[in-house]
Amino acid sequence: MGMCWGNDRSVERDVGEKRVLLIVGGGVAAYKALLLTRLLRKAGVAVRPILTKAGAAFVTPLSLAALAEDKVYEDLFSLTDEHEMGHIELSRSADLVVVAPATADLIAKAAQGLAGDLASTTLLATDKPVLMAPAMNVRMWLHPATQRNIATLEADGVRFVGPEEGAMACGEFGPGRLAEPEAIFAAIMAALEGPAARPLEGKRALVTAGPTFEPIDPVRGITNRSSGKQGFAIAEALAKLGAEVTLIAGPVALPTPPGVRRIDVETARQMLAASQAALPADVGVFVAAVADWRVDEAFGSKLKKEKGGPPALTFVENPDILATLSASGPHRPRLVVGFAAETDHVEEHARAKLARKGCDWIIANDVTEPGVMGGGENAVLLVTKTGTERWDRAAKDRVAAQIAQRIAEALG
Ligand code: CTP
């Protein structure tokens, strides 16, 4: 326990501690509010929950209180006890008010300025920014009444995350699904941190990641070893700093980072086409382990063993995506970053690669270091036209955050 809120006069609040007032509305997706609460608490954000009557039909106050490590507020008229704070004070006791899930009913009440219960009263009385994560049936979402209410709230300065498109608990398909807890969490952190934490706001980034797969026949192919972890972490780190990120991913088993637009491809040629289609971009980060060769013509049907020994395959070179985009004239991203996986003479090879590919930076790693290939850590050299920096070995998401920060500085 030990959360320190504005009204808790016994304990001074940690100045750096951020606080969220979380209004949980009704709906099958309300369970995601529990996962969201966990993410926020893990990040050191205090969560004070308000549970609506409808919300309480889906999650229990006890679960919410345990995960939030705070009392759950449910009833407008129980806030009269002198030991309780009043609803006005409650509405202002956080840095941000979050509604997740925001039902059609809550949205309509907020848009109209109704204040018949604790949740709507809080939304009307608060002087803090409000972030809503809508969740409802697709018809309800698309209904002009809801769209009108959303437009009204947007004009009032309310921010929204989601809804996403997908299969719904009611069996229909379309927009209306509550955004994933990770996406709501990212939107909350962005709102809490303010513009200084988002130096890449308004900038477009293109990231390639993972291996490519070049088919030989419908069941066989050649590929490179790459988990995609470093590229995905960079896409996520750039998005966290506010960039609009397109992630072009070869076949990998990784979830899409929150707030990132992902395009899945298989071959080098598809990756090149998707990269070109993602232009213009302010920065291109080419992390993919692109297969250097493909068979000149993939077989349309499966090669059979019995047909007289192994087939003779002719290979042709794949396009170099990094070099092609580095040389794309007026469409060239302002900053082009390549990667190099080396086993020896790391700096020398990286510098040669920088010149050969025409990029601005090469981030080089020594793949003979244990735990780098497929592992969670990376030890890198940043090679630019003017110098070389050796970074300490760190977790791949730490390295990604450092790269994103440097990109933000370079783009000014
Ligand atoms: N790359 C690319 N398209 C290719 C090959 C590589 O975009 N067809 C990019 C990678 O994403 C990486 C960089 O180029 O950013 C370095 O790739 P790498 O395969 O390590 O270098 P090579 O050009 O193959 O050089 P070498 O074989 O000498 O190491």
TrEMBL record:
A single cellular component GO annotation: phosphopantothenoylcysteine decarboxylase complex
Catalytic activity reported: N-[(R)-4-phosphopantothenoyl]-L-cysteine + H(+) = (R)-4'-phosphopantetheine + CO2; (R)-4'-phosphopantothenate + L-cysteine + CTP = N-[(R)-4-phosphopantothenoyl]-L-cysteine + CMP + diphosphate + H(+)
Entry superkingdom: Bacteria
Residues involved in CTP binding: D292, K302, P319, D320, I321, L322, F339, K353, K357
Record field: transmembrane: 20-40
UniProtKB keywords: Decarboxylase, Flavoprotein, FMN, Ligase, Lyase, Magnesium, Membrane, Metal-binding, Multifunctional enzyme, Transmembrane, Transmembrane helix
Molecular function per GO: FMN binding; metal ion binding; phosphopantothenate--cysteine ligase activity; phosphopantothenoylcysteine decarboxylase activity
Cofactor-binding details, from the entry: Binds 1 FMN per subunit.
Domain DNA/pantothenate metabolism flavoprotein C-terminal, chain residue ranges per copy: 200-409
InterPro entries: CoaB-like_sf, CoaBC, DNA/pantothenate-metab_flavo_C, Flavin_trans-like, Flavoprotein
Active site: C170
Single GO BP term: coenzyme A biosynthetic process
Region (Phosphopantothenate--cysteine ligase): 205-412
Positions of the Flavoprotein domain: 18-190
Name by which UniProt lists this protein: Coenzyme A biosynthesis bifunctional protein CoaBC
Species in which this protein is naturally found: Caulobacter vibrioides (strain ATCC 19089 / CIP 103742 / CB 15)
Source lineage: Bacteria, Pseudomonadati, Pseudomonadota, Alphaproteobacteria, Caulobacterales
